[in-house]
Structures are given as C-alpha cells and as structure tokens.
Write the structure tokens for this entry.
Amino acid sequence: MCGYDVIFFFSLSEQLWPLLRERAFGDMDGKTIAEFRRRAADAGFANAWDYTPDGGETIQDLRVRAGEFFRVRERCTEQYRVINASFSALRQVL
C-alpha cells in the first residue's frame, strides 16, 4: 500500500504516516516554546528555528523527511484518498 500501511480509508479511521511526526527537539522535547527560544538566544541564534538542540532534528532533516512524505503521498493519491493536515512547521520548511 504505497509503501506504508497508514492512510485514511473510507471508514475514516485515522492512521499516521511515520514521516509525519513532530520535529524532534532532543533535550528540549517537552519544554515550552519560551524555554526553547531562550536556549536558542543563549546559544547565539537570532532566529530560534535555526537552533538545533542536542539530540534534535535539524531543519534540513525535517525538509528531507517532509519531501519524502510528499513523494509517497503523491503515489498514494492515485489509489486512495489521503488527507493530511499540519500546523505551520511543515509549511515553513517547504
């Protein structure tokens, strides 16, 4: 099934693609956005989203993963109805 057994079927049971997951923030996972921004500023980053915490996923890693999702999704939409939704992060990296 398009390489993944995780799509929306007509029964509307939701299943998630492993390619569509939250950005990994490493040692900042579970922290508030204010804490993230403070840590980024302390590390010398003017733009917090350019900062990658220890053990975290870089924006480039996220771009690669998102690109793979869209390639897989394109193959799947020929056979299945696929619905995807995201907050702003996915839009920002593309």
User: Anything to note?
Assistant: Residues 26-93 form one domain. Residues 3-10 have pLDDT under 50 and may be disordered. The CA atoms of residues 13 and 78 lie 19 Å apart. The helical segments are 33-42, 59-76, 88-93.
